[in-house]
Design goal:
Elements (H helix, E strand, L loop, with lengths): L2 H4 L2 E5 L3 H13 L3 E5 L5 H8 L3 E4 L8 H8 L7 E5 L4 H10 L3 E4 L4 H17 L9 E4 L2 E4 L4 E4 L2 E3 L3 H12 L7 H9 L9 H12 L10 E4 L3 E4 L6
Parallel strand pairs: 1-2, 1-3, 3-4, 4-5
Antiparallel strand pairs: 6-7, 7-8, 8-9, 10-11
Helix pairs in contact: 3-4, 5-9, 7-9
């Protein structure tokens, strides 16, 4: 295998040519093959046909916005999607995660920050979640989590999860009955600790509860332990 073939392939979907060229050059200098795409209406076909190792996606694009792109490709593309956008509202962050993004970066972001997020996302995708090593599945009542197939079934019905959502659920399942602090979760999933401000874990927990029909008040299946973190209950799935 040639050195070029070993390099992870990234697709940067960004309509600003200066931003695209600068970020693509920086990532290329650090060992990545980077292709660029300027339009949202042509991005889905490229993502599905080329199956890059990771997609960096702006939200404000001509033709289709980033939300539409994620929604269209997710059934046919399982790799990490990192949204990188000037939009910094909680609503945009939540919507991106719910549509299937794996991470959310607010511009302007230093290239080294983007590089760190890319490395972390690719590492998670390659490992498939390194917690619970040696286990291939977890079964809690009517919930089954299959690591090899990266599939989740509840009541016999498969539920579609993004890579990031699956990795978080697997982490919680591997520590079922234990409280995991936000800092532990961030370190496992991103390789960095929680800074006290980042709400992506809380948002993703909310998304898991929605997918797993954990809509009680308070939730019973993925519990919030105030001041400490989150806990997946092994006994509330019957």
């Amino acid at each position: 295998m040639s050195e070029e073939e070993k390099q992870p392939r990234l697709l940067l979907v960004e309509d600003d040519p200066v931003t695209a060229e600068g970020l693509a050059s920086y990532l290329a200098e650090h060992g990545y093959q980077v292709a660029t795409e300027a339009r949202g209406d042509t991005a889905p076909l490229r993502i599905v046909e080329q199956q890059p190792d990771l997609v960096l996606l702006d939200l404000d694009l001509p033709g289709k916005d980033g939300f539409q792109v994620i929604h269209e490709v997710r059934p046919r593309y399982a790799g990490p999607i990192l949204v990188i956008t000037v939009r910094g509202s909680d609503l945009d962050h939540v919507l991106a995660l719910e549509f299937g993004a794996d991470d959310f970066i607010v511009k302007p972001a230093a290239p080294r920050i983007v590089l760190a997020r890319v490395k972390a996302a690719l590492r998670r995708a390659a490992q498939g979640g390194n917690t619970g090593r040696g286990r291939t599945d977890f079964v809690f009542g009517r919930l089954r989590i299959d690591r090899n197939a990266r599939a989740v079934h509840l009541d016999g019905r498969e539920i579609a999860f993004t890579t990031a959502e699956f990795d978080l659920l697997w982490l919680l399942a591997a520590h079922a009955g234990e409280v995991l602090a936000r800092d532990e979760i961030m370190t496992h999933l991103r390789g960095i600790g929680h800074d006290g401000m980042d709400r992506s874990i809380d948002m993703r927990i909310s998304r898991l509860r929605k997918l797993l029909k954990d809509d009680g008040d308070p939730p019973r299946r993925i519990k919030t332990v105030r001041g400490r973190g989150y806990l997946l209950s092994p006994s509330d799935w019957d």
